[in-house]
Write a structure and sequence with these properties.
Blueprint: E1 6-8, H1 11-21, E2 26-35, E3 42-51, E4 54-58, H2 71-75, E5 80-83, H3 87-95, E6 103-105, H4 106-112, H5 120-128, H6 148-159, H7 161-175, H8 178-188, H9 212-232, H10 242-250, H11 271-290, H12 305-337, H13 339-345, H14 348-356, H15 364-376, H16 381-388
Parallel strand pairs: 1-4, 2-5, 5-6
Antiparallel strand pairs: 2-3, 3-4
Helix pairs in contact: 4-7, 9-10, 9-11, 12-13, 12-14, 15-16
């Protein structure tokens, strides 16, 4: 069947779309967004929805509609939302105040069917022999009008999701994992990313190589870079190269090259901006002196003796639990269900989180499975119970 879609960029057409979707029990959904790539911030650029042979491409950037009017459908527990690898999409929607419910993420179903991590394109090709063509994911979704290629790609992201769900549900029934998929997807309803800072520009990993004094100056330069990015609606990397800001933080004389340095946003290549940055560094240096920040002590401080002992003790417990408890359980799961499913259920990160008590609440089927195999393998049940909760 030839793929067709409707481009929705006016209130009247969106209202008709919502009226149609309110009669649907399930919809396929995907988002296109820009996360500090072409513009500043985490921005919704397109919403694709498919149901009952109708495909809608809804433009949230249009000033002729309010995308928030779509949110009640996404939050309706009675309407299933079929999606694929929707974690980042959820983060964006939560930041906009929308908390979708009743999600069916096909990437989760795929892993529980012992598929290796794969893109939607590859899964469609492998399972349904559907070739969706080349990707437009990294194209500029802000630019209007969208190209035919972009619109075709966007529609393809939802057009085949019902078919893929039907295939996976049939296979899940054969494998006895339908309830596992349900439980994993129910966990998505409990997530809340509304407090996540998607524009966080100060990262602990960047501390390496700086003294305490230099790190304070570098943080102020990053704040300036972020402010300019927001002002000019450009991602931070287009304001000034990070490597150059590092050089300036370590040696303010590098600022003399400001107007001749590649990668600086052209509107900021001026003596006035250079003077502002000189003043910023002077102010940051004075603050660093008042705080007694060292010119030689590394910004990333070594752990204290007690902190180091605690870290090593925790690592030892994780390794012991991994080798004595979870490795045998994982081997058993692999024998019964396959290696890719075993890796999904018992990743190294999850094992570490379970041992340190940071795993939250596991789905019931995982607890039951881990305890079942632990008992069969005559493992330390008290320890397993402690770790799985």
């Amino acid at each position: 069947m030839e793929q067709t879609s409707r481009y929705i960029d006016h209130t009247e057409s969106l209202e008709k779309t919502i009226e149609f979707l309110n009669r649907c029990d399930a919809i396929a959904i995907d988002l296109e967004f820009d996360k500090n790539y072409y513009h500043y911030g985490f921005n919704l650029c397109l919403v694709q929805i498919y149901s009952d042979d109708q495909c809608f491409l809804i433009d949230p950037l249009s000033d002729q509609l309010e995308i928030e009017s779509l949110f009640p459908i996404l939050e309706d527990k009675n309407v299933q939302k079929i999606c694929f690898s929707f974690d980042e999409d959820l983060r964006l929607l939560h930041s906009l105040g929308c908390f979708p419910k009743n999600l069916y993420d096909l990437s989760i179903a795929s892993r529980l069917l012992n598929d290796p991590p794969a893109s939607l394109t590859n899964l469609l090709q492998e399972h349904l022999n559907i070739d969706t063509g080349s990707s437009s994911q990294q194209s500029n979704w802000f630019k209007r009008p969208l190209t035919k290629k972009q619109l075709h790609y966007a529609a393809n992201d939802v057009y085949h999701l019902f078919k893929l769900k039907d295939f996976m549900e049939a296979k899940a029934s054969e494998n006895g994992v339908i309830d596992w998929i349900r439980q994993e997807n129910e966990c998505l309803d409990q997530l809340d990313y509304s407090d996540v800072d998607h524009n966080g520009f100060i990262k602990e990993k960047d501390m390496s190589g700086f003294s305490e004094f230099e790190w304070h100056i570098f943080k102020e330069l990053l704040r300036w870079q972020d402010e300019m990015g927001e002002m000019y609606n450009r991602p931070a990397y287009q304001i000034a190269p990070k490597r150059y800001l590092i050089e300036i933080a370590k040696d303010s004389r590098k600022l003399m090259q400001w107007n001749r340095t590649d990668g600086i946003f052209k509107k900021l290549k001026s003596d006035d901006v250079k003077s502002d940055l000189i003043a910023l560094i002077k102010s940051a240096s004075k603050e660093a002196e008042e705080q007694n920040y060292s010119q030689t002590q590394p910004a990333r401080n070594d752990l204290s003796r007690e902190e180091y002992k605690l870290m090593m003790k925790q690592k030892s417990e994780i390794n012991r639990a991994k080798n004595e408890i979870f490795k045998p359980i994982k081997t058993k799961i692999e024998e019964c269900y396959g290696s890719d499913l075993a890796n999904f259920l018992l990743s190294n990160r999850l094992i570490s989180d379970m041992v340190t008590g940071n795993n939250g609440s596991l789905p019931d089927y995982r607890k039951e499975l881990f305890l079942k195999y632990a008992k069969e393998l005559s493992l330390n049940m008290d320890a397993v119970q402690k770790y799985v909760g």
